[in-house]
Amino acid sequence: MAAIMRGVMIVAIFASFASVAFATAGQATFYTQYTPSSCYGNQDMGTMIAAVSADIFQNKAACGRMYTVTCTSGTNLGVPMPCRGGSVTVKVVDLCPGCSANGFDLSQEAFSVIADPNEGRININYVPA
């Protein structure tokens, strides 16, 4: 029985490394005007949404895709430890033309789940949900 439990633990440890290894690093900001969006026009898609950089958006191919976003650190000296722990899952609804590669412009509500909005810009990891 101990050998089985040890095997399960080893598999669990390697599985946790795999999820981190496949995450993509980027940066996130937040915005507050959610409509209209280039994917859904004036349709309200809720508040757990994001606009993404052109490399992710791919001329609307990313519309409706879900991503899980995790704050990894702040980018300035505004807030010493802005990350709140945990992750948030958002739906792509728009293009963020001002975002750098691998950039997310999260709704203010989504940003607030993972970081202090006073930071304004954070480093993130993201994976498809």
Characteristic key phrases:
3 helices; Barwin-like endoglucanases; six-stranded mixed barrel; 24% helix; 129 residues; alpha/beta
- The structural class is alpha/beta
Helix content: 10-25%
Percent of residues in β-strands: 25-35%
> What is the straight-line distance between the termini?
35 Å
The SSE string, one letter per element, is HEEHEEEHE
Strand order of the largest sheet: 1-5-2-4-3-6
The helix tally amounts to 3
Using the coordinates above, name the CATH class: Mainly Beta
Detailed description of the structure:
The protein has 129 residues and is of the alpha/beta class. The chain has a single domain, classed as RlpA-like domain (Barwin-like endoglucanases, Beta Barrel). The chain has helices at 2-21, 54-57, 108-114; strands spanning 24-31, 49-52, 66-74, 87-95, 103-107, 122-128. A 6-stranded mixed β-barrel has the order 1-5-2-4-3-6. It is globular and about 40 Å long. It starts with a helix and ends with a strand. Mean pLDDT is 89; it is low at 7-19. Pfam families: DPBB_1 (PF03330). This is Expansin-like EG45 domain-containing protein. It comes from Saponaria officinalis (Common soapwort). One of its GO terms (biological process) is systemic acquired resistance.
